[in-house]
Design brief:
single chain; alpha+beta; 2 helices; rod-shaped
């Protein structure tokens, strides 16, 4: 599990500095200050996969009863990346502590692993309008005012109703009644061709046994075969052509 620390922000002793146990070499005990004296080269840092470099601040032992943890203070420069790996590898021979490492991930910056600033008292709110109406107007900067949410449903209903009335009573569509009905029409086309059957010139041609529909130029655009018996008058499915 990685440690989370704020991007490009020096860690602070006792609070944001990272404390981890270091295992003494060859045993299962935590190393204490008398077991290991960190030296240059013992602790490396790798920022976003770049070449390993010596840490600026070597860790120090923090006594915890008969054991200890080791505190790592990382500089602002060492936290200017998304993922930072700290590697402990004692350079003395024989080694007095085991090799180990830990990962730090950053937050609070566009270049961090996690851009939101988790350390802020109130996370930033960037919702100010919905359906063109301002309804989150914080009285205190950074604090959302949700008092208008109760009216949101009514606002949405009014907007939807307005759009429906506009679509039914005001908006127009292209006149599709002048051509052949497609084999797989859209809903708009299907309604328009129903309209064309009612609006366009139609002829019942007894000789051809057809009901014919014409466009405004008096050209036959589609037709239906019709049959008549002693008991029924039948119209076949429309044909898409003269």
């Amino acid at each position: 599990m990685p440690f989370l620390r704020k991007y490009a922000t020096l860690t602070v002793t006792g609070t944001t500095a990272i404390q981890v146990p270091i295992i003494a070499r060859g045993v299962v005990d935590f190393a204490i200050g008398t077991d290991w004296t960190p030296a240059t080269g013992d602790v490396k840092i790798i920022v976003d996969g770049t070449a390993a470099a010596n840490v600026t601040n070597l860790p120090t032992a923090v006594t915890a009863g008969d054991a200890a943890t080791w505190q790592f203070i990382l500089t602002a420069a060492e936290l200017t990346g998304k993922s930072i790996r700290v590697v402990v590898c004692d350079q003395t021979s024989p080694k007095v502590v085991e090799d180990q490492s830990f990962i730090v991930e950053t937050f609070g910056h566009a270049s961090a692993m996690y851009p939101p600033d988790f350390s802020a008292a109130v996370l930033p709110v960037n919702v100010t309008q919905l359906l063109g109406t301002a309804w989150l107007s914080p009285a205190v900067a950074g604090t959302p005012d949700v008092s208008a949410i109760g009216d949101l449903t009514a606002t949405m209903k009014t907007s939807v109703n307005t759009e429906v009335v506009d679509a039914l009573s005001v908006d127009t569509i292209a006149d599709l009644s002048q051509g052949l009905p497609p084999a797989t029409p859209t809903l708009e086309q299907a309604i328009m061709y129903l309209y064309s059957a009612l609006r366009n010139k139609g002829i019942a041609d007894k000789t051809a046994g057809e009901k014919q529909f014409y466009n405004d130029a008096d050209v036959l655009i589609w037709k239906k075969a019709v049959t008549k018996t002693a008991t029924a008058y039948t119209e076949a499915e429309g044909a898409t052509g003269p």
